[in-house]
Amino acid sequence: MTLFERVFNGNDAVYGLTEQAIDAAIAQHGEEKAVSFPNTAYCLPCYYAVTGVKVTNLKELKEALGVVKTLMTREPRLNDAFMSGVATALCAEFIEALKYIDGATPYEEPLYGHLADAVIRELGVPLVTGDIPGVAVILGSAPTVEEGVALVKSYQAQGILVTLVGGICDQVAEAGMATGANVRVIPLGKDVTAVIHVVSVALRAALIFGNVTPGDAKTLMEYTMQRVPAFVNAFAPLDDVIVACGAGAIALGFPVITNETENIARVPKSLIVQEDVSKFNATSLEARDIKIKITNIDIPVAFASAFEGEIIRRGDMQVEFDGSRVDCAELVHTVDASEIEDHKITVVGPEVDDMELGSKNSIAYVVKVAGKNMQPDFEPVIERKFHNYINCIEGVYHTGQRDMQRIRISKNAFAAGFRLKHIGEVLYASVKNEFEAVVDKCEVIIYTDPAECTRIRHEVAIPTFNKRDDRLNNLTDESVDVYYSCILCQAFSPSHVCVVTPERLGLCGAVSWLDAKATNELDPNGPCQVITKERPIDERIGEYEDVNEAVKRLSQGALEDVSLYSIMEKPMTSCGCFECICGIEPFSNGVCIANREYAGMTPLGMTFPELASMTGGGVQTPGFMGHGKHFIASKKFMKAEGGIERIVWMPKELKEFVADRLNQTAKELYGIDNFTDMIGDETVATDPETLVEFLTEKGHPALGMDPMM
Ligand code: SF4
Ligand code: NI
Ligand code: NI
């Protein structure tokens, strides 16, 4: 049989199954029955992306199947095979969607099935920074459990996001491997149709970040080919259905690497036979042109960004360090080059061997740095990265910062020989690696002696933090001479530009003005460029001629003008990876804000994913604005429309997160005490009527303000 025939056969088989499944569902539930995946604004995302049509019920699903049929032409040409591959993928999506009918939860841990829009938005930043350099789709059963696990781990160690479909899900479970989005290994499902859940991620990325018009299949496929670094590893034996799915993957630009040798035609760069499974990794990276940043650190456990989200439970930990209970600190300290011995690592006090199993201890590490271009302003920028660095160690967990950090070292890591001095190695290597433009020499001192920790914390660290906070508080948009652009997200959102100011951080929440300044210093031709602010046009909305010029140039002409402080007039664009989105609520003259973690309904009648789908892709959408969490308490938060007084609703968790700073700003700006208490949340209202009642009762200031539109 030719490859074409295999694709067509596989496609026909899946089509037949889909037709049966839809007919059976209609017989059972009736045509009007709703179909959708949970936590997405895109209904059946793949079908919507390819055709521009939203399927909402079984009747429409049946009609959609008719459209799919038109893709299934049968000439033995490449394009026919690709379209049949796409048709197979869409059928798979239909079959998977039927599993979710009636709010069913067809996937149980550790399987994921459908992935929420929020997961894709979260992937935005790590994908653009190259922190996640690629996405692997592993399909079928490896020849042995060991080979399967070794392959998965090889990708994990490179930070690649791994999705699993079919027998490999059981194989990693059998090996006892920890899986989950937090360690970047996501078992999707055991049926081959579950592969659609990763395709769905790629296609939604095009809609969310790329501003691709749903239905523009050509642009869609160009987007996935150029911007989504995914590839497929399919284990032999391949049946025709898998071959048909593979044709779909190739149509999207994702190469397929397989160890099948029988009955398979090789297609250069697209369908690659690699008989040796241990070489799948290298072959795949080469085929997709993925480069891995290597940080060689001499420690006895793995070090990779995939371990960043790893959690160490109490029962699995050897020891713990806890800044909320005992004196701890983490600090970057700039000193003169003569005071440093490069790469010297010292532990002052007991090592882990001398600590009792399961005990809580003090730790304070001081990373001394020196360099001609080093500035004290970069200290907190470097320090904040410690969280990522330490978390990347397999078997070590870090939360918090400054003098409130908490670290756990697992029994496994300890047994493998991991000791505190290795934290020093990690900090040294990572700082030197990432900040080489400003750090010439670096030395690490780790204190565990409790008296020394107390001294470092109270006499060195806290005074430094206080000084820095004063500096930050005095850092306003007016007090600086320049702002910075960030165009990191252009990898996925080609026309998006963030303008980062002291009082308005990037919408991802990860880039403050100081971060942008440091990034610019580290790489003057990199993503953060200086933007002057010498020619104001309108102070009220924060519009400048120089900012407009910069934005126009950096967006390649896509954006003409942008304001810094307005949500209605020339608002800043969004890429898609914003932490929060705010949208106007007409009944109260206010705005509602939802954060990415919030899964419920808002008084705007939309969930976070639905609200989020209103903006993105680098386009201006008055009335909706993506932003970082910390922007909420800023004096510049939609200042043009009256500022934070307009905030009428936020999820409870977000409210608690911003309360202190928001209350302080409200007090300073309007003399209101405990402003956060006047703001509704999901425990008060998720509809506008109840919300307005609540706001009236509280005397919320927005009610008396001018309507925004
Ligand atoms: Fe993307 Fe803006 Fe964050 Fe830069 S600041 S990473 S462009 S969201
Ligand atoms: Ni103390
Ligand atoms: Ni982004």
From TrEMBL:
GO terms for biological process: acetyl-CoA metabolic process. GO terms for molecular function: 4 iron, 4 sulfur cluster binding; anaerobic carbon-monoxide dehydrogenase activity; CO-methylating acetyl-CoA synthase activity; metal ion binding. InterPro entries: ACS_CODH_B_C, CO_DH/Ac-CoA_synth_bsu, CO_DH/Ac-CoA_synth_bsu_3_sf, CODH_A_N, Prismane-like_a/b-sand, Prismane-like_sf. Residues 19-101 form the Carbon monoxide dehydrogenase subunit alpha ,N-terminal domain. The keyword Repeat does not apply. It comes from the Bacteria. The keyword Cytoplasm does not apply. Keywords: 4Fe-4S, Iron, Iron-sulfur, Metal-binding, Nickel, Transferase. This is CO-methylating acetyl-CoA synthase. It comes from Oliverpabstia intestinalis.
